[in-house]
């Protein structure tokens, strides 16, 4: 369960103050920008793969290096975005934190119930 999704999901229950709302809006905008940057990076990888496959002897190591670079950039962006959400969470009152916690507890319980249902249906294979 992502922290960002949990906070965004319960936003209406949090009664954010003006500063928290600004932080929330900034985090949402950064989230969108990071997603768009990730799409751009994946297009770069795809285009590199197409270009290499058009060659008689494609250099797959070059494509792998581009893919690794894209993955590293994406990870750095995700950590930056998560940091902003955690900074916002750090400004929450105890009551606001409890709202987020309760949502995460419910989410985990639903997830565990689904996993149990799947295990029961398909058998536990490890």
Structure description:
With 126 residues, this protein is mainly alpha-helical. Helix content is 85%, strand content 0%. The protein has helices at 3-9, 11-14, 18-53, 60-90, 94-122. Helix 3 (18-53) runs antiparallel to helix 4. The two termini are 22 Å apart.
What's the main sheet like? none
Structural class: mainly alpha
Q: Helix content range of the residues, please?
A: over 70%
Report the count of strand segments: 0
Specify the number of helices: 5
Mean pLDDT: 94
Which band does the percent of strand residues land in?
Answer: under 5%
* Low-pLDDT residue spans: none
Give the C-alpha Rg.
20 Å
H/E element order: HHHHH
Tell the overall outline: flat
Distance between the termini: 22 Å
Briefly say what this structure is.
The chain is mainly alpha-helical.
What descriptors fit this protein?
single chain, 0% strand, 126 residues, mainly alpha
Please give the structural blueprint.
Layout: H1 3-9, H2 11-14, H3 18-53, H4 60-90, H5 94-122
Helix pairs in contact: 3-4
